[in-house]
Amino acid sequence: MKKIYTRPNALKDTHFHYCPGCGHGIINRIIAEVIDELGLRGKAICVAPAGCGMLIYNYLDIDTLESAHGRGAAVATGIKRVLPENLIFSYQGDGDLAAIGTAEGFHAANRGELITVIFVNNGVYGMTGGQMAPTTLKEQITTTTPSGRNPVNAGYPVKVCEVFSVLDGTSYLERVAVSSPANIKKTKKAIIKAFQHQLNRTGFSLVEILSPCPTNWKMSPLEAFKWIDEVMTKQFPLGVIKEVK
Amino acid sequence: MLIKTIFSGFGGQGVLSMGYTLANTAMHEGKYVTYLPSYGVEVRGGTANCTVVISDEEIASPVASEPEFVVAMNQLSFVRFQSILQSGGLLLVNSSLVNTSSARGDIEIISVPTSELAEKLGQIKVANMVMLGAFIKATSIVSFDFLIDHLAEILGEGKSKLIQLNKDALETGYNFIKE
Amino acid sequence: MKRLMSGNAAVGEAAILSGCTCYFGYPITPQNELTEYMAKRMPESGGIFIQAESEIAAINMVLGASVAGARAMTSSSSPGISLKQEGISYLAADELPAVIVNMVRGGPGMGNISPAQSDYMQATRGGGHGDYKTIVLAPSSVQELADIVPVAFDLADMYRNPVIILGDGMLGQMMEPVEFEHIKKTKDYPKDYILTGAENRPSRMVRSLLFDTKEEEEHNWKLFRKFQRIENNEIRYETYLVEDAELVVIAYGIAARIAKGAIKRLRQESIKAGLLRPITLWPFPYKQIRELAKTINDFFVFEMSTGQMVEDVKLSLEGRGHISFYGRPGGVIPTPIEIARIISRHYYKSQKVRKS
């Protein structure tokens, strides 16, 4: 019998402990598949963030460093400059990259650091209990925007890819979602593309992934997928935002 | 021997480079030295001073309590530093810019019209080296011949084109002071 | 051959000779000459230089370079060092080596750009959050500053812990003759913890998050035992004229130089003063100071702060002897004659007390 589905080598033999319907498990697996397919297990180093995403080091069977909240891009810079032949990627949430780590991400991108940021955008601070993130939508209810995000007080949802696209150091920026099998395939392609940009030394690469957080969105997993496609993508349109050939 | 000197003036008058040149000469002669610049937000126009300590033995403090010598390139420095000069100390003044009348009778004041002397060389910028030449003649703190012989080395990179000019300036100041 | 060099530049040259291949900095007075020196010399020597977007980014780049196996350094001055504390805490938690230079300036807040010693507590008590220590080295001359750099890198690698070189604005800016001939990387330390990609070996993980309280407690005790080893093995200090002293001045860094100048004057007046200069501020020479109290009753602490190390001197003496303190905070540089007068007044007063 032909084996058509198996655990990637870059994934540890363990269960994911993410909430039901969480996107992190899907994204972790995609990364592991890409590492296998590109033969990068011995070269890849992951910089994990603070937040739910940090648990990635329990699942990826590659060298991993856990960085302080928001500092992933700076730490990845340090590693990459010492090990230019390795594949270095940081895995960062929306609070991590677009709030506390704005300076580190922005300037790593601006320097054209040859690193890849896997940017998981689920519009909330997950691990701390569903507070407003910089990417929370207008009028979206969170524990710190109980009557909905009001831009007058809380500002607007940050479009990271669009902001980074004007920086000369960036070479590949794409926004994808893990809301359907088709979108998951596109996410995998985007990560492959971003890693290739790093390995080809073209410039800084980032894949923004719209990802469900049913627990904090107070939705069922299915409702959450639908919400990404119908609501979230209106503020965060999918597609390649920038590609330097 | 332990000799403390304060060089002082406006920023831009070459006060720090005077001190550095003296310290570097003394080091090349094999003496113990410390060079302590004052530093601030001003680059030009503000006050600048530095303390150079030269000794035959290890130097305890780079900070000078009561200097033996003061070089004052402007009025403000003249007023400020004459008061901390040791009794019997020597004060070299840039008389081109400074009114040299002093209330202190226990110090020796030597006036050097550095601007005029430097202008004769066609370059006002070397007024500091004119003063340094005069200072070395008046104090014998380092060997003048040693400085002239090793000038390129002591002034360091970047000043190689200006060796002759600096030499002329040092000699002008040195010869200005009579035995 | 000796070179007349500023303390800042001397640190840079010594770091490169000690095998430092990564420097990450951010401008702040009075340590800019070090960043500028590295900007020029690092590329010449095949190393890495980045002017980071902030002190926070710089210390995190150091962490990244360290976890990748390189000898890495950053430098700053007081306000910038406060920003680095987050990263220093993570370095200590992750047990990663790094060297951090602090050319201390007047504070708190923006303070000023003049030399001060007001970051003693921050440096010797860890500085960031959590139960940890950093090794703190406090040289007092430009040559000692250069000499201590390879020591700092060795201690960092030996104990896998951040090491602070605590200077001040004066030490960074002043120039003295320095020799570098003897400064070199002497040893390669085994680095079985670094991340290089899991090629033909199990994957590694470097982290400080330990949700399991038992695990975190064990990690804390493990660090504690390491800090005990450091306390037992790494204390450094210098004494000057203590053999016949009736009064011992305790001062570190540039203040100790000023104190030495004062002691030379006092000796001319036949006041038998001596000096103990801690070179490691953590671990602190508690025992050595306590030992002095067997024969000496009078201790005089001088700091360019309102009194921080004096607390460690009190801890050393455990109630023995008499301690007086003189401080000049805020960037003021006192002269040896000022310190000599203060000590001399104090000395005659305590003589009178002794006689009555």
Which descriptors apply to this entry?
heterotrimer; B: 179 residues; alpha/beta; Pyruvate-ferredoxin Oxidoreductase, domain 3; 7 helices; globular; C: alpha/beta; Rossmann fold; 2 domains; five-stranded mixed sheet
Explain what the structure shows.
The complex is a heterotrimer of chains A (245), B (179) and C (356). In chain A, helix 1 crosses helix 7 and helix 3 packs across helix 4. The N and C termini of chain A lie far apart (42 Å). Chain A is 36% helix and 19% strand. By secondary structure, chain A is α/β, with parallel strands linked by helices. Chain A has one domain: Thiamin diphosphate (ThDP)-binding fold, Pyr/PP domains (Rossmann fold, 3-Layer(aba) Sandwich), CATH 3.40.50.970. Chain B has 179 residues and is an alpha/beta fold. Helices cover 37% and strands 21% of the residues of chain B. A 6-stranded mixed beta sheet of chain B has the order 2-3-1-4-5-6, with helices on both faces. In chain B, strand 4, helix 2 and strand 5 form a beta-alpha-beta unit. In chain B, helix 1 crosses helix 4, helix 3 crosses helix 4 and helix 4 packs across helix 7. Chain B is globular and about 40 Å long. With 356 residues, chain C is of the alpha/beta class. Chain C has 2 domains: 231 residues, Thiamin diphosphate (ThDP)-binding fold, Pyr/PP domains (Rossmann fold); 118 residues, Rossmann fold (3-Layer(aba) Sandwich). Chain C has 12 helices and 15 strands. Chain C has a 7-stranded mixed beta sheet with strand order 3-2-4-5-7-6-13, with helices on both faces. The longest helix of chain C has 21 residues. The model of chain C has no long low-confidence stretch (mean pLDDT 96). Chains in contact: A-C, B-C. At the A-C interface, strand 1, strand 2, helix 2 and helix 4 of A face helix 3, helix 4 and strand 9 of C. Strand 2 of chain A pairs parallel with strand 9 of chain C, so a sheet runs across the interface.
